[in-house]
């Protein structure tokens, strides 16, 4: 079973990301990665989260990435979700049950104009607005209880809040450029 667990913020998450990012850059061919970010809740200092490091990688060509990244990532312990219904990205999991001891890392690979990259302002907004980060944490805790074993329902139930924050992020960004 792959239960959703929200744990208190761990300052080591930043270091775990940095170490994994270095491993990824070392394992993947030069020129494949044009951007690499720590995103998701573990990237927001102070925010409780599922203890899974989410990594977002930008690539110039998703088809090329699919041909050239699956094998090296498998060698680093990542399972590729070949049947991902979201066709604008590749998705990999390290520690995928039942083979592992639990999920530890997710990698989302997409071209820079794909939806995951358009959601990066969500992370940035929560980093800068702790009251909204606390609201998000409370929502995640409630949803983790309600959807303890249903990751898809848990993720879908957060969507309205994420859209609300993304709208705030756009307003904040545009007013800071004025």
| Overall outline | globular
Tell me the strand percentage band. 5-15%
Order of helices and strands: HEEHEEEHHHHH
Poorly predicted regions are none
Multimerization status? single chain
Q: Give the number of DSSP strands.
A: 5
Radius of gyration over all CA atoms, rounded = 16 Å
- Largest β-sheet summary: 5 strands, mixed
Helicity range: 40-55%
State the secondary-structure class. Answer: alpha+beta
Average residue pLDDT: 93
* Strand order in the sheet with the most strands: 1-2-5-4-3
Number of helices: 7
Distance between the termini: 50 Å
What's the gist of this structure?
The protein has seven helices and five strands, in the order αββαβββααααα. By secondary structure, the protein is an alpha+beta fold. It has a five-stranded mixed beta sheet.
Structure overview:
The chain has 178 residues and is α+β, with helices and mostly antiparallel strands. It has helices at residues 12-27, 62-75, 115-118, 120-128, 130-146, 151-157, 159-176; strands at residues 35-39, 53-58, 78-80, 89-94, 105-110. The protein has a five-stranded mixed sheet. A hairpin with an 8-residue loop joins strand 3 and strand 4. Helix 4 packs across helix 7 (159-176). The longest helix has 18 residues, at 159-176.
Topology:
Elements: H1 12-27, E1 35-39, E2 53-58, H2 62-75, E3 78-80, E4 89-94, E5 105-110, H3 115-118, H4 120-128, H5 130-146, H6 151-157, H7 159-176
Parallel strand pairs: 2-5
Antiparallel strand pairs: 1-2, 3-4, 4-5
Helix pairs in contact: 4-7
